[in-house]
Write a structure and sequence with these properties.
By secondary structure, the chain is of the alpha/beta class. It contains six helices and five strands; from the N terminus they run H-E-H-E-E-H-E-E-H-H-H. Helix 5 packs across helix 6.
Length: 245
């Protein structure tokens, strides 16, 4: 007779995890959803350079072929890095990239410029203020500049790479700047490692980076959507991705 209560307690203890596991999993998923949503908002709508440069609407490239001009003092490895990153971005975004012919270089959409560090601060890009170019080039790493017309449509971008860095640094910064030129302009340390963190050197995007890129180019997230409406849609899209097996 005294053993029966003990058996009952053992059964209850065994069953307790079964009751608590779904609740714990739901809480973890909610926390991850909140974090990824904040990650997206910071990267897409933030601007570490100047708050006045921050986008107020979803901005991205349209589906037409994007001509890519690769110029400057690059070696054979640099071109291979760029090609690999563009291939991955095409898969995740649905965009099409094609290398510009010599006759098309001046009118190319996306320019990858490989220059020496001392040249980075004195380049000219249309009506972009020289002071901004000087500020971006001062670090001696890489930087990008994108142009929009209207604010929801990216029509041209320039990526500037310091060829005096080692190959790993060039590969990593190419990946970061290519991704940012697609409409994800800001850096953050909300997730690490990440191509959007200046503290990391990645040559392949993290799973969280992939979610951001795919979400931005999901057809349900329309170019031109204002921030509040966009973030509501973003949260739903990220939630759908987290629920996939």
């Amino acid at each position: 007779m005294p053993c029966r209560p003990l058996i009952g307690w053992i059964s209850l203890l065994v069953m307790l995890p079964l009751f608590f596991q779904p609740h714990q999993a739901q809480g973890a998923n909610e926390e991850e959803l909140n974090r990824l949503t904040r990650f997206f908002e910071t990267v897409v709508f933030g601007s570490e350079e100047d708050p006045r440069l921050a986008s107020r609407v979803i901005a991205k490239w349209r589906s037409r072929p994007i001509t890519v001009a690769i110029q400057g003092r690059l070696n054979k490895h640099h071109g291979a890095y760029a090609s690999a990153h563009l291939t991955r971005m095409a898969k995740w975004t649905g965009l099409r990239f094609k290398q510009a012919k010599k006759s098309e270089i001046g009118k190319a959409d996306l320019h990858l410029l490989f220059v020496r560090r001392k040249e980075m601060q004195s380049l000219k890009f249309g009506n972009i203020p020289p002071s901004l170019i000087a500020k971006l080039g001062r670090s001696g790493g890489c930087y990008f500049i994108s142009m929009k017309k209207p604010p929801s449509k990216i029509v041209k971008a320039f990526i500037v790479v310091n060829i005096e860095r080692d190959d790993l640094a060039i590969n990593a910064c190419l990946l970061e700047e290519i991704a940012q030129s697609l409409g994800l302009p800001n850096d953050t340390n909300i997730y690490r490692p990440s191509i959007f963190s200046d503290l990391d050197r990645l040559t392949v995007p993290s799973p969280q980076d992939e979610i951001l890129i795919r979400t931005l180019y999901d057809p349900k997230l329309r170019a031109g959507m204002p921030r509040t409406a966009a973030m509501k849609q973003v949260r739903e899209l990220i939630q759908e991705r987290l629920q996939r097996p």
